[in-house]
């Protein structure tokens, strides 16, 4: 990628548009809005993680075959990734607060429906609707944080988000298991409702940027859904139904081609591929996809790996995975402090290497080494991931004109979810290829994705235009 006219154009648009936008919210409005945003992060993380913890109990209670019950999280992820970018465009027209309110209400209703479900079909439908509500919230997160904090504090805001997600990821499995011990799996879904109602009351504290009238391109939305949905579905089916998988992947490629061609002719397209022309954004999106693919592949493969290679108990596995999240939580505020003093590329290189070295350490140890050494390796991987996340997200968000903050936020969320879905699909692929070596190959896949992300960031380091400095 090279410095292009798009970078200069972005700077001009930012400069001309900035007088109509405040540089962040004043105190104490800033922290009120931040509290609402952080609560949304907690709710969405808890919902996703605790529902996955409950899958075995759900399968048993509703008499669902384990091979079918996995479609509950798969359908959820597909619904989110297929709708993120179109919904971020919707927010520009109807307003951030209104879409946030709709998303929260839909999430609440669908949570209650999921908790009351008495069949696989009803539960699956409820989770898809719940994913739609989640997508309405997630597509706004990047734009909201961009408008809450002044540019000089954006790294701090992003580090708070990362730390909140990391801590929630540590607590959610334990709280989910605790709920399952005390009550029915249905309370996994009911438990988020009171917090969602509190969030609904706090929507008035969110900043409402000026709305923009844009042409809503229905065909671009359809092509976007086909591109993301068929690509993930194709990877999922690659080992079990290769013919169908090939058709899905070809369909995804064709849809992507027409989507890009259509979007490039528009001034502010529904699918903001024009933002990828901005050097800092292009690198940030690519690095994000592979880093989150590495993270998710590791989270899915490592429990099987530790169980197979080290005969680890579920308690031990919980501690190992928790060490990763603790590493992210500890490093997030440090990365937030350093993000305006050290180049984005260098921080992301160090972070990607930290993740890769930690995963390589786990593979080299195999069945050897004490649990403490494994904890340190997982902690190192988490620290690396935490060191990457904040500066990369900042580069993506500040690299675009402020009026396009919602589009950038949608792209950030789409890159994250697509990367996580891609990582999960990679694990399904290697597990299907080899039942005995699947867990080890899964960790290797996570390591390779981390190294690819490092390669992207090395290329970024040699391109000064990839590191936006906005004061």
From TrEMBL:
GO terms for molecular function: transmembrane transporter activity. One of its GO terms (cellular component) is membrane. It is a multi-pass membrane protein. The chain crosses the membrane at residues 31-50, 70-92, 99-122, 128-149, 156-179, 185-206, 218-237, 281-305, 317-338, 345-366, 372-392, 413-435, 441-459. It is found in: Membrane. This is MFS transporter. It comes from the Bacteria. Residues 1-22 are annotated as: Disordered. Keywords: Membrane, Transmembrane, Transmembrane helix, Transport. It comes from Candidatus Paenalcaligenes intestinipullorum. InterPro entries: MFS, MFS_dom, MFS_trans_sf. Residues 33-467 form the Major facilitator superfamily (MFS) profile domain. It holds the Pfam family MFS_1.
């Amino acid at each position: 990628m090279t410095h292009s006219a798009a970078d200069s154009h972005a700077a001009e648009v930012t400069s001309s548009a900035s007088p109509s936008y405040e540089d962040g919210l004043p105190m104490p409005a800033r922290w009120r809005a931040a509290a609402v945003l952080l609560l949304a992060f907690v709710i969405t993380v808890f919902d996703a993680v605790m529902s996955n913890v409950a899958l075995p109990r759900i399968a048993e209670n509703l008499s669902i075959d384990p091979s079918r019950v996995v479609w509950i999280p798969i359908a959820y992820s597909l619904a989110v990734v297929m709708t993120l970018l179109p919904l971020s465009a919707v927010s520009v027209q109807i307003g951030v607060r209104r879409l946030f309110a709709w998303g929260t209400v839909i999430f609440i209703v669908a949570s209650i429906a999921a908790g009351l479900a008495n069949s696989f079909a009803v539960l699956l439908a409820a989770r898809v609707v719940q994913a739609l509500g989640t997508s309405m919230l997630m597509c706004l997160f990047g734009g909201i944080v961009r408008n809450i904090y002044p540019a000089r504090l954006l790294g701090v805001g992003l580090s708070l988000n990362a730390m909140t997600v990391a801590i929630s990821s540590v607590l959610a499995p334990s709280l989910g298991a605790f709920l399952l011990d005390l009550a029915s799996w249905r309370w996994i879904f009911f438990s988020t409702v009171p917090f969602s109602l509190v969030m609904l009351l706090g929507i008035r504290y969110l900043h409402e940027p000026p709305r923009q009238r844009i042409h809503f391109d229905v065909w671009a939305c359809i092509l976007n859904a086909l591109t993301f949905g068929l690509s993930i579905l194709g990877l999922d089916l690659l080992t079990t139904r290769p013919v169908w998988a090939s058709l899905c992947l070809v369909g995804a490629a064709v849809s992507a081609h027409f989507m890009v061609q259509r979007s490039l002719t528009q001034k502010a397209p529904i699918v903001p591929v024009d933002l990828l022309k901005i050097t800092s954004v292009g690198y940030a999106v690519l690095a994000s996809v592979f880093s989150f693919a590495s993270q998710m592949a590791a989270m899915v493969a490592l429990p099987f790996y530790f169980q197979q290679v080290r005969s680890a108990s579920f308690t031990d596995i919980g501690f190992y995975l928790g060490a990763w999240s603790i590493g992210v939580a500890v490093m997030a505020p440090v990365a937030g402090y350093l993000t305006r003093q050290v180049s984005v590329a260098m921080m992301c290189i160090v972070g990607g290497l930290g993740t890769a070295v930690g995963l390589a350490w786990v593979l080299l140890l195999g069945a050897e080494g004490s649990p403490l050494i494994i904890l340190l390796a997982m902690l190192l991987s988490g620290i690396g991931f935490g060191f990457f996340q904040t500066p990369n997200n900042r580069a993506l968000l500040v690299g675009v004109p402020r009026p396009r903050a919602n589009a950038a936020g949608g792209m950030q969320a789409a890159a994250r979810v697509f990367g996580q879905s891609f990582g999960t699909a990679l694990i399904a692929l290697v597990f299907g290829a080899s039942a005995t070596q699947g867990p080890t190959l899964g960790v290797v896949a996570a390591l390779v994705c981390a190294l690819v992300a490092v390669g992207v960031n090395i290329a970024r380091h040699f391109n000064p235009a990839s590191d936006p400095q906005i004061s």
